[in-house]
């Protein structure tokens, strides 16, 4: 028996149905209960089968597209007349187009392009869509993920590989003033299970060492060294020691003061709460200090936290750190360690950070997100978010604002 004979017995092979006559029935008009049931009730009289259905509602107007098998010979005209007459009675518009088969098979290479705008302009949307087309991609589907605090839409694109599409779109995004994330479509996206975040200027709005420095009266000196380190101009470990030394002699009671001064980034709680509900594990790695990250871990219910530790002797900061130094390489190492402990492959991790010392971690993760990052980081990361809301990262994972709010509302009941 030949291979082709064998496969002809597989009942679910779609190739057989690819050139059967089909009817595309499009209904457009004011959305109200009963339209979908009414259309299919009307079609049911002709014993047709459903091949595909898509329905969208935008500001109260619905477009319902039903692709059905053509009715038995001779009944086509009758079906058309009945559907039009039903549509008219419902004050809807109907269009019926005869054809063959289903959608054309989608091209190889499937990607999801998430566009975040604040606002999302028609000009930027046109430019993104044109770039997708010029890259050889076809837009199969467009879907709104969120209208608040940003407008977020997702384009499902086929026919072009993810990497070249990302390169092309990320370059455009910076010019257009929108954020664009391009990820490969597929099961792995639903399986991302560990998110690791930087702390200073990512999870929180502050640089913790600057909060300590304010109490030590050496704010300006420390801020200068921090900025140079984050621009990648200074070795992180040297700059860490130099800055911590400036804190020597400070009373240990400032630790509590600094903890109370830390301001979470808008959307931080929503992001973490939603990720936990989705079954993600969430961790932080910081070039800052365990004196603050341990507190954040406790307050936010994080699974992992690691940072440098300020040495305290006789109730005073010594101006030294103890233990393993968390620097640029250390952050990537900790991402791997957390992933191993969580039982999650690196390809299913998401890392978020803003500084040069986050780059190794962002590149090691399955998805690296530069969050309001310095240009050097933004250019090297998979994707960049430049709006100041941390929960917008959820949209990059395909979670909609409605889902977030519905989950919150459910919890409150
Ligand atoms: Mg940072």
Automatic annotation (TrEMBL):
CDD domains the record matches = ACT_PSP_1 (cd04870), HAD_PSP (cd07500)
InterPro entries found in the cross-reference section: ACT-like_dom_sf, HAD-like_SerB, HAD-like_sf, HAD_sf, PSP, PSP_ACT
* MF annotations from Gene Ontology: hydrolase activity
Keyword annotations of the record: Amino-acid biosynthesis, Hydrolase, Magnesium, Metal-binding, Serine biosynthesis
The family database entries (Pfam families) matched by this protein are listed as:
ACT_6, ACT_PSP_2, HAD
Reactions catalysed, semicolon-separated, are: O-phospho-D-serine + H2O = D-serine + phosphate; O-phospho-L-serine + H2O = L-serine + phosphate
User: What domain of life?
Assistant: Bacteria
Name the coenzymes or cofactors required. Mg(2+)
SUPFAM superfamilies, alphabetized: ACT-like, HAD-like
In short, the EC number is 3.1.3.3
Q: In which pathway does it act?
A: Amino-acid biosynthesis; L-serine biosynthesis; L-serine from 3-phospho-D-glycerate: step 3/3
| Domain Phosphoserine phosphatase ACT, first and last residues per copy | 113-182
Describe the family membership recorded for this protein in Swiss-Prot or TrEMBL: Belongs to the HAD-like hydrolase superfamily. SerB family.
The identity of this protein, by name, is phosphoserine phosphatase
């Amino acid at each position: 028996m030949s291979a082709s004979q064998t496969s002809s017995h597989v009942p679910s092979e779609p190739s057989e149905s690819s050139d059967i006559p089909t009817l595309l029935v499009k209904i457009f008009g004011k959305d109200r209960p009963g339209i979908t049931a009414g259309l299919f009730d009307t079609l049911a009289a002709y014993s047709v089968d459903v091949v595909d259905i898509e329905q969208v509602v935008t500001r109260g107007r619905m477009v319902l597209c039903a692709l059905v098998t053509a009715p038995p010979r001779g009944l086509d005209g009758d079906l058309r007349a009945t559907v039009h007459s039903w549509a008219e009675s419902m004050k809807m518009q109907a269009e019926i187009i005869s054809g063959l088969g289903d959608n054309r098979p989608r091209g190889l290479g499937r990607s999801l392009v998430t566009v975040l705008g604040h606002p999302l302009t028609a000009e930027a949307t046109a430019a993104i869509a044109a770039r997708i087309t010029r890259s050889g991609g076809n837009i199969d589907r467009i879907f709104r993920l969120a209208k608040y605090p940003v407008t977020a839409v997702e384009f499902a694109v086929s026919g072009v590989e993810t990497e070249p599409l990302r390169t092309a779109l990320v370059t455009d995004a910076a010019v257009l003033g929108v954020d664009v994330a391009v990820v490969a479509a597929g099961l792995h996206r639903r399986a991302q299970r560990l998110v690791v975040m930087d702390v200073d200027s990512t999870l929180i709005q502050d640089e913790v060492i600057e909060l300590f420095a304010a109490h030590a009266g050496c704010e300006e000196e420390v801020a200068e060294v921090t900025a140079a380190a984050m621009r990648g101009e200074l070795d992180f470990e040297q700059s860490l020691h130099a800055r911590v030394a400036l804190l020597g002699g400070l009373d240990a009671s400032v630790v509590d003061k600094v903890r109370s001064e830390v301001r979470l980034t808008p959307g931080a709680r929503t992001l973490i709460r939603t990720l936990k509900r989705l079954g993600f594990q969430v961790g932080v790695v910081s070039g800052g200090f365990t004196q603050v990250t341990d507190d954040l871990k406790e307050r936010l219910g994080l699974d992992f936290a690691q940072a440098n530790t300020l040495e305290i002797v006789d109730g005073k900061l010594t101006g030294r750190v103890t233990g393993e130094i968390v620097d640029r390489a250390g952050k990537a190492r900790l991402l791997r360690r957390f992933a191993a402990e969580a039982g999650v492959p690196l390809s299913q991790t998401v890392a978020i950070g803003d500084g040069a010392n986050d780059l190794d971690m962002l590149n090691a993760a399955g998805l690296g997100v530069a969050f309001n990052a310095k240009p050097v980081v933004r250019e090297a990361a998979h994707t960049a978010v430049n709006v100041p809301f941390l929960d917008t990262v959820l949209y990059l994972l395909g979670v909609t604002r409605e889902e977030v709010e519905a989950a919150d509302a459910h919890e409150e009941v």
